[in-house]
Amino acid sequence: MEILKFKTNVTSQDEVNKVTPLLDKLDGISKWQISTDSEENILSISGDNVNPQQVENALTEAGFTGEFLRVLGISGEEL
């Protein structure tokens, strides 16, 4: 299990709702959340073999931007 972090421009719950169906259908993701109260609106994803480009493409499809920041190689599902 690894955790991926992305900087996004998703700033509200309504916007999170727009990305939800697109992120939910991506392979390998077991859990995700967007911290809309942080300055960089960080998207954290827990999963196995998650493709960062597919995540960025899903955000773009919903009308938002996402910049891949890093992968943390840890076990568990804590974001």
Can you give a write-up of this model?
The model has no long low-confidence stretch (mean pLDDT 93). It is built from 2 helices and 4 strands; from the N terminus they run E-H-E-E-H-E. The chain has one domain: 2-Layer Sandwich (Alpha-Beta Plaits), CATH 3.30.70.
Brief summary of the model shown:
Residues 1-67 form the HMA domain. The protein is of the alpha+beta class and 79 residues long. The chain is built from two helices and four strands, in the order βαββαβ.
Number of helices: 2
Structural class: alpha+beta
DSSP strand (E) fraction? 25-35%
Uncertain regions: pLDDT < 50 for 5+ in a row? none
CATH topology tier name: Alpha-Beta Plaits
Instruction: Indicate the radius of gyration in whole angstroms.
Output: 11 Å
Helix content estimate: 25-40%
What integer is the average pLDDT? 93
Total domain modules: 1
Distance between the termini: 11 Å
Cross-sheet strand order for the largest sheet = 2-3-1-4
* CATH class division: Alpha Beta
Most strands sheet: 4 strands, antiparallel
In N-to-C order, the SSE pattern is: EHEEHE
Protein name: Copper chaperone
Domain HMA: 1-67
GO molecular function, one term: metal ion binding
InterPro entries: HMA_dom (IPR006121), HMA_dom_sf (IPR036163)
